[in-house]
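JOB MANIFEST
job_type = single_chain_structure
chain_count = 1
residues = 346
[input]
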Amino acid sequence: MSTFIHSMTDYFSYYKDASQFSLATSVCKQSARIVSLAWHTTDDDFLVAGSINRIYICSTRQKRTIQQINVGKLSSTSNRRGQKDTIIWCLAVTDDYTVFSGDSSGRTCVWDAVYGTLIRSFQTHRADVLCMTLSSDEQTLFCSGVDSVIVRIELVSPKSETTTSATTTTTMTTDSTKQWIKTISIHSHSHDVRSLTLIPSRFASIRNKEHNLSNKLMLISGGLDARLLVHDIVRDNSKPPVLWRKCFNFTQHRNKIYQKGNYFLFTYRDYIELWSIGKEGGINDNGEDILERAPKNLVQIKTKHQARVDTVAMTVKKSKDDEQVIIAMGDTNGLHVYVIQGNINY
């Protein structure tokens, strides 16, 4: 039997079986939109709902809100901006009822859900925080959003904090109470990051010739740049994240090939390539074709700011001494015309 929750305009519905869509109950009816949900991993009665300026802690058995956290509006020196609402885009919950929230002000906040108090607040991003993921041991959180930076937040003990200089290494010994701190940032995406997930590493040990998988994680991220990125993560943060794999098969753009005379034009998402074809030079003793002239990549033209290539056209003009290849390319920034001339078809 599976469970399934569905967010509506101002409340959410709770289903016992998603395959049959049998409605079990509707709880937490509010006056504002509910835009994010997070369920406690072991306590089925504990459900967190993100709304406008507020986070609601709901009980599915009591069918009501048992705690309400007031996040507040955006604060700024500008009165106009200070009136903007804070939208809670994403949530995560730990076993000890600690709630993480990512909002439209670029903040990642840590809350005590039992008392409804703020534990820590981080200005992790310059724009909306749209997604987050929590490690299985609940010691590490990754978050990202519109500014495409992936930020890591860790639960560490202050006594283990170490300061290293060119000549000395200083270890601070303070209270043993653990606290959440912001550690590293990953700059791999070019556009909004919409989804994050952490999985145990199964291949990093083969790649790095190591045998300890318990300290390895894989962070998978995807967004509007149509790339699925896989980072090799070390749990104890002793090494920086390593970009392990890029997957480009999630774009709707179709690569096309145009041919005109002795030239081929290859179009990709944000660049084009012009090639000249080779020339046969006969057959060798084994009956294989010999190339007198190999194919050559004449030019690669990239769009500005990784704009998407929408359409291209090509024509060839010949003269006695040289040839001209005229390429028209339309992208999201406008129309561009390029002329490649000279003895390019050598």
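[summary]
Residues 160-175, 204-211 have pLDDT under 50 and may be disordered.
The chain has two domains: 4-247, 256-342.
exit_status = 0
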